Amino acid sequence: MASNTVSLAADAYLDDSASFKQFHLDSRLLQAIEKSGFHHPTLIQSHAIPLALQEKRDIIAKAATGSGKTLAYLIPVIQTILDYKKTQQDTEGEEEGEEGSTLGIIMVPTRELATQVSNVLGQMTLYCSNEIRSLNVSSQISNSVLNTLLSESPEIIVATPGKLVNLLEDNIKSISLKNLKFLVIDEVDLVLTFGYQDDLTKIAQFLPLKKNLQTFLMSATLNDDIQDLKKQFCRSPAILKFNDDEITKDQ
Ligand code: ADP
Ligand code: MG
Prior knowledge:
- The structure is a single chain.
- This protein is of the alpha/beta class.
- The protein has helices at residues 27-35, 43-53, 69-90, 111-124, 143-151, 161-169, 188-193, 197-204, 226-233, and strands spanning 59-62, 104-107, 134-136, 156-159, 182-185, 214-219, 238-243, 246-250.
- An 8-stranded mixed β-sheet has the order 3-4-2-5-6-1-7-8.
- A hairpin with a 2-residue loop joins strand 7 and strand 8 (246-250).
- Helix 2 (43-53) packs parallel to helix 3 and helix 3 (69-90) packs across helix 4.
- The radius of gyration is 17 Å and the shape is globular.
- The site of adenosine-5'-diphosphate (ADP) has 16 residues, from helix 3.
């Protein structure tokens, strides 16, 4: 059954005139991108990355399956966490560390997608795996293994909303979201179709104030259902819509 289709359509969406170098990325991240064989960003990447990275905007993006949405959010997330870690190192000893708190949450509608995103995350953090550790809490591991891994305080958690809400409501002490910087909801249309709205509302109670959180809502299709989520999670998001070759930007 091919419910979990691997999409390799990104070639069709490449922004040939752009290069990943123009985003001023950490050399370890750039090296990982190059090792993956990516030379040019796709259109969604070349529009979303500077808005997220330089302008710190929240992003709502609608772009076809296979257009490269994963790196459109992962690159800004990884880069900002690397920057943050550097400032932490510089001030080490002067300020109280923020050891042990999650910096990014990536929510996806299915376990398969959680695995897929985790794999890309692993690829992109290949050269900075000490600074950025991630955990897929929706993978099939026992609770005791999960607790051990969570107690190591991974910087990024990948999860389906159902699993995340269970963990948060179970009061797992090792998940602290007080310093959370990023919230991604990938395939947000499916997240809603699968009935996760109530779980998202519960999760919202554990999050820091909206003004301290950068949010990415990504989807292949967008309809009005997203309005509630926009209000719930976003500040004043840049809305990027890619239809065929046409890009609509609402900034
Ligand atoms: P989407 O989430 O929009 O469906 P993905 O992020 O899964 O798309 O990307 C689709 C495919 O394109 C993946 O196989 C990915 O490795 C590849 N890809 C992503 N960005 C690029 C790029 N800049 N250049 C070439 N291939 C890319
Ligand atoms: Mg995707």
